[in-house]
Amino acid sequence: MENVLRTLIWDEQVSLTLVDATEIVNEAIRLHGLSRPAALVLGKTLSVMTFMSACLKEETGEVSVSLKGNGRGGKLSVSGNYALRIRGYIDCPQAVTEGGDEEAECLGSEGSLTIIRDDGYSRPFVGACALNSSGSVERAFEEYYRISEQLPTHIAASIGFTPEGTCAYAGTVVLQPLPFADEETLKKLPARKRLEEIAASVKALGLEKAAEIYFSAKSAGLNLRKAEYKCNCSKEYLSGVLVSLGKDQLKDILREDGEIKVHCHYCNKDYRFTEEDVEKMFP
Ligand SMILES: [Zn+2]
Questions:
Q1: What is this model's ipTM?
Q2: Per-residue pLDDT reduced to its tens digit, 41-52
Q3: What is the residue range of 252's domain?
Q4: Same domain flag for 165 and 266
Q5: Which of 72, 74, 211, 252 sits most deeply, having the most CB atoms within 10 A of its CB?
Q6: Residues 102, 190 share a domain
Q7: Rounded to the nearest whole angstrom, what is the distance from the C-alpha of residue 131 to the centroid of ligand 1?
Q8: CB-proximal residues (5 Å) to ion ligand 1
Q9: Is 198 exposed, middle or buried (0-12, 13-18, 19+ CB in 10 A)?
């Protein structure tokens, strides 16, 4: 089912995006065995990156973020592409917090956020900003948009869990006023708290209903798409990466370890390459 909705609202002066990333977050929990704080922080990052992927204009486009904070979760890496295939991991998937704000303790309040956006043709765009002291994933992305893209952006992501630790809902709302938006329209932007409440109700209401109720979006202009958690790794792809190490080095590893093991952090999968595989790489 479609889980990303984009449209223009309020006389086409504001761009609205709603994301229901519940399934994406559950797949991340399943693949990485995430603790609740890790699922919260990685889940929010996957949600916002689903939005950023939906903004890509080229079919060959890809966007990735590296969030390096000083919190207990360590570094987060999330990538997405034009086809809305999203994947990501956190350095400490079992991170536990000490009873304060789970998100802030897991992410940290110092560090950096780096975005790499590649349209597949020209030199990739790289933008970065420092993490602010809020310890919030959304505030970090808002800061990035303000500083690096000069685009005022309002983001609320809300994630709830079941007692078993799976994701019950993961809703995200993103509002971007267009450059010509007038004063009256800007006044209509909901306060942060309200935006969080709206994000929390996206799954229960459904994307279209939420867009209509909260933002008077007309059903005619809705762009609905399906995003999923999917890694693009394969044995073929990784053998292309190994080739760049050169035959001699690969032979050395084979001599020492008997095989070459490559681990994909995004989907937690191990790939094994034998002597025969290496021979095939260098025909
Ligand atoms: Zn993978």
A1: 0.99
A2: 999 999 999 999
A3: 235-281
A4: no
A5: 211
A6: yes
A7: 28
A8: 231, 233, 264, 266-267
A9: buried
